[in-house]
UniProtKB/TrEMBL annotation:
Signal peptide annotation: none
Keyword DNA-binding: yes
SMART domains per record: HMG
Swiss-Prot/TrEMBL keywords: DNA-binding, Nucleus
Alphabetical list of Pfam families matching this protein: HMG_box (PF00505)
GO cellular component, one term: nucleus
The name this protein goes by in its record: Putative transcription factor a mitochondrial
Top-rank taxon: Eukaryota
Residue ranges of the annotated DNA-binding region, renumbered to this chain: 54-122, 159-223
Biological processes annotated in GO: regulation of transcription by RNA polymerase II
Domain HMG box: 54-122, 159-223
Keyword Nucleus on entry: yes
InterPro entries, A to Z: HMG_box_dom, HMG_box_dom_sf, HMGB
Length: 259
């Protein structure tokens, strides 16, 4: 029997929301690096090493941007990176068709070369490396889907989860400990909590109960709003995607840890 929506999505607070936000530059002129990564760099137990695959070919716009960037920066040295990108995009939009066609054609040539390199790369992979690459791809998609779920829940203003007594304690004491022992904040707070008499922990436990009641009340109201606005389908779809990706990922992870 499936749990009601309020129970299902109360458990969504367990989804890891501490997802790294990786800000990458749109323009990367560095090409052709040859490296070999061990799986340890990807937090895997396998010793399988993977030659870096051929880089995907840049689009016509990216090729144009790589050429235009030095000139834009020179003419506008005070622009922030995001403003530089906007300026380049404006130049691309106003460029004549012959310019766009030149970069589009160059991108097409790069893509044809990429396909050849990728085919050669694939033929040289061992069975273990192919499994490792599959695991990395699934892991990347899983991470992306979790991030999308987290962002969707944030946009839908899901109530913040209840704070524990320990979290309330560390929040109250952190600034003082940070000032005295900036390099030992967490270990110091943990020790302080451990040594705190039960009588002095009691106020934090009481506050935690109040916060839990707040959370449960807000969640009930939020669930009703989700029902009214018909938002369950998109959330259920994302949750199902995560479940299916984990089914694919877990056996591969076990296999790689044994190799």
């Amino acid at each position: 029997k499936m749990a009601p929506p309020v129970m299902q999505f109360a458990r969504l607070s367990l989804v890891n929301t501490n997802i790294c936000r990786v800000a990458g530059n749109l323009i990367n002129a560095k090409q052709g690096d040859q490296q070999v990564y061990g799986f340890a760099t990807l937090k895997h137990g396998s010793a399988t090493t993977l030659p870096v695959p051929p880089k995907r070919p840049p689009t016509g716009f990216i090729l144009f941007a790589n050429d235009a960037r030095p000139n834009v920066v020179k003419q506008n040295p005070s622009l922030k990176p995001t403003e530089v990108i906007r300026a380049i995009a404006a130049r691309w939009r106003s460029a004549d068709e012959s310019t766009k066609q030149k970069y589009t054609a160059l991108s097409k040539l790069r893509r044809e070369e990429f396909i050849k390199q990728k085919e050669l790369y694939d033929t040289k992979l061992t069975v273990q490396q192919k499994e490792a690459l599959k695991e990395v791809a699934i892991e990347k998609k899983l991470k992306s889907t979790k991030k999308k779920l987290h962002e969707t829940l944030r946009q839908l203003e899901r109530p913040k989860g209840p704070r524990s007594a320990y979290v309330l304690f560390t929040t109250a004491k952190r600034s003082d400990v940070q000032a005295r022992l900036p390099k030992e904040v967490m270990t110091t707070l943990a020790q302080m909590w451990k040594e705190l008499p039960e009588e002095k922990k009691k106020p934090y436990h009481e506050k935690a109960e109040v916060d839990r009641a707040r959370y449960e009340s807000e969640m009930v109201a939020w669930m009703k709003r989700m029902d009214k606005e018909g938002k369950w389908e998109v959330l259920n779809d994302l949750k199902e995607d995560i479940r299916e990706l984990r089914k694919e990922h877990d056996p591969l992870k076990k296999s790689s840890s044994k190799s």
